[in-house]
Design goal:
Multidrug-efflux Transporter 1 Regulator Bmrr, Chain A; nine-stranded antiparallel beta sheet; 2 helices; 18% helix; 35% strand; globular
């Protein structure tokens, strides 16, 4: 699979987050919980939602998957949590990332992940943290074949 990869520096941001353990089938429900909490707190989302994946299907059973959903939020918000529901606010530091775009259904993003890992290794970089997906289109308003997801890993040159 041929992909176009961009190396870029992300900016520091404040995010509301939901830390999770379990199958990815809980992502939709968890985004609902996260955005409901953001609304309760009066926070203002300031960018597209993000999924951070600390392990992957095939590495561990679905019940052991560790992931976090994030929403950038505007303004000066104190860090907190995670609370008993796994919700909180934290700062995410800037990072150099290798990034590519996936167009299509979420359940087909695995091939893009594999191609990105291949590019990173072939080009002399080392993965420095968990992979992220940045969801650039709303699945409630976009046909699955037109969904745009930015896939990236923090990297450093070896």
């Amino acid at each position: 699979m041929a992909i176009e990869v961009t190396l870029k520096k992300t900016e520091q941001m404040t995010v509301a987050f939901a830390s999770m353990k379990g199958p990815y089938s809980l992502i939709g429900e968890t985004f609902g919980k996260l955005y409901g909490w953001i609304g309760e707190k009066g926070f203002v989302p300031s960018g597209p939602p993000i999924g951070v994946y600390f392990n992957a299907p095939g590495q561990v059973p679905d019940a052991e998957l560790l992931w976090e959903l994030r929403s950038p939020i505007a303004g000066e918000v104190a860090q907190s949590g995670p609370d008993e529901r796994g919700l909180g606010v934290k700062k995410v530091e800037e990072a150099e990332v290798a990034s590519t775009m996936h167009r299509g259904p979420f359940d087909q993003v695995g091939a893009t992940w594999g191609a990105l890992v291949g590019w990173i290794m072939e080009n002399g970089y080392q993965i420095m943290g968990p992979g992220e997906e940045i969801y650039l289109t709303d699945p409630d308003k976009t046909p699955p074949q037109e969904l745009l997801t930015e896939v990236c890993f923090p990297v450093k040159k070896q």
